[in-house]
Amino acid sequence: MTAVSEPVKRVLLAKPRGYCAGVDRAVVAVEKALELYGPPVYVRKEIVHNRHVVESLRERGVIFVEETSEVPEGELVVFSAHGVSPAVRAEAEERNLRTIDATCPLVTKVHKEVNRFAREDYDILLIGHEGHEEVEGTAGEAPTHVRLVDTAEDAAKVEVRDPSKVVWLSQTTLSVDETMERVDQLKGRFPNLADPPSDDICYATSNRQTAVKAMAPECDLVLVVGSKNSSNSQRLVEVAKQAGARDAHLIDFAREVDEKWLEGVTTVGVTSGASVPDVLVMDLLAWLSERGWGDVQEVTTANEKIAFALPRELRSV
Ligand code: SF4
């Protein structure tokens, strides 16, 4: 009788994954503020969209607030990596708050594009998710010029003042492929639609999607470490499925993996969103190893070397 060999269980680990330069900078900025000024340090919204990061900082004396109006007069507040509108800055100034701006420079770049096109009186079609903090901040730069396009239905309905003077810009953390679908749809309606001067979807978002696409066709299951409110992490789940993974799930922690997902699975793909510290991925690998998936092969599609200087307010101290 011939022995039937068991399929070899393995993990494909995407690279790049996890922390991007903007998230790293924002988290270090809060840590530095804690070190320099001591707790409490107020942060408007979650500094980055990750439960582990937010809970760890909270334990160290950070108070997260929804709005600057909740910060006592004269205190220190950090603006999150997702950016804020001019109205929020003005409110902070009125209330004499000391501020540290941890907005990612790649989000600031989109704010500047909005300002430039608004000055030239373009209508700006901002592709992004309604209600996302980044979109609120970006649109707030020129609310009368920006029209938000979230769904295909929005793209079919959006109206502009002058179809010959219209440009599209986008949130930094969208699916590259879906955004291009939306742009094609908009160009069908507005043939003179101008493109952004450079890509708004950031290098980290697109690199993580490319890595997941490379491994997904070989995966029975892809596990994305990331929080539910993290746009780029959610997109990785969608991209994995679209690229051929049989199944894909978003988890904050290894303990959230449902063992049923592993039934009949040989190859597990692992990646993480741009706001996820690698320690959480290592925990997941250890969890998988205990269950027989100890063979880990890295799938590398890019080597990232980008780093950003700390916010201006922290450079001179
Ligand atoms: S995901 Fe991109 S835009 Fe967002 S913080 Fe990271 S580098 Fe900046």
Automatic annotation (TrEMBL):
Cofactor(s) of this protein: [4Fe-4S] cluster
Residues engaged in binding isopentenyl diphosphate: 49, 82, 132, 230-232, 275
Binding site for [4Fe-4S] cluster: 20, 104, 202
Reactions performed catalytically: isopentenyl diphosphate + 2 oxidized [2Fe-2S]-[ferredoxin] + H2O = (2E)-4-hydroxy-3-methylbut-2-enyl diphosphate + 2 reduced [2Fe-2S]-[ferredoxin] + 2 H(+); dimethylallyl diphosphate + 2 oxidized [2Fe-2S]-[ferredoxin] + H2O = (2E)-4-hydroxy-3-methylbut-2-enyl diphosphate + 2 reduced [2Fe-2S]-[ferredoxin] + 2 H(+)
Binding positions for dimethylallyl diphosphate per the UniProt entry: 49, 82, 132, 230-232, 275
Pathway: Isoprenoid biosynthesis; isopentenyl diphosphate biosynthesis via DXP pathway; isopentenyl diphosphate from 1-deoxy-D-xylulose 5-phosphate: step 6/6; Isoprenoid biosynthesis; dimethylallyl diphosphate biosynthesis; dimethylallyl diphosphate from (2E)-4-hydroxy-3-methylbutenyl diphosphate: step 1/1
Record-linked InterPro entries: LytB/IspH
Cofactor info, note text: Binds 1 [4Fe-4S] cluster per subunit.
GO biological process: dimethylallyl diphosphate biosynthetic process; isopentenyl diphosphate biosynthetic process, methylerythritol 4-phosphate pathway; terpenoid biosynthetic process
MF annotations from Gene Ontology: 4 iron, 4 sulfur cluster binding; 4-hydroxy-3-methylbut-2-enyl diphosphate reductase activity; metal ion binding
Active-site residue list: 134
Residue sites binding (2E)-4-hydroxy-3-methylbut-2-enyl diphosphate per the record: 49, 82, 132, 172, 230-232, 275
Enzyme Commission numbers on file: 1.17.7.4
UniProt keywords, alphabetically: 4Fe-4S, Iron, Iron-sulfur, Isoprene biosynthesis, Metal-binding, Oxidoreductase
Top EC class for this record: oxidoreductase
Function: Catalyzes the conversion of 1-hydroxy-2-methyl-2-(E)-butenyl 4-diphosphate (HMBPP) into a mixture of isopentenyl diphosphate (IPP) and dimethylallyl diphosphate (DMAPP). Acts in the terminal step of the DOXP/MEP pathway for isoprenoid precursor biosynthesis.
Similarity field: Belongs to the IspH family.
Protein name in UniProt: 4-hydroxy-3-methylbut-2-enyl diphosphate reductase
Organismal lineage: Bacteria, Bacillati, Actinomycetota, Actinomycetes, Pseudonocardiales
